[in-house]
Predict the structure.
Amino acid sequence: MINSNFAVFGFKILGEIIVSIVFFPFWWYSKGLIGFLKSNIDFLTARQKSLGLFVWVKNIFKPMYGQEDWQGKLISFFMRLIQIIVRSVVMFFYLILSFCIILAWIILPFIIMYQIFYQLA
């Protein structure tokens, strides 16, 4: 004999599964995308902080090790310029990587649906 609670909760669970499947695309492109973009911004902010790019740019004209003579200022300027260029290239790599991952997030459901329909045909 089937318990009535089993049938009631079974239908509730089945209804929740159907609602989740139907509303998944809406979540994917609204709340999910916004959360994903926020996590990517946090990732890029952390990478920038780890590279210290803004610190290097802010201090480009300050001499290193407190050397105030013109040779120390010249060497410090070019060393910091090289560091800024290299760190900017690394940051650009992270920016491109993040952009590609966001693009993959956006087109992934279409690729999955295409593969499902291709396998069914």
Notes: Residues 41 and 98 are 9 Å apart (CA to CA). The helical segments are 4-29, 31-51, 53-58, 70-120. The first helix runs from residue 4 to 29.
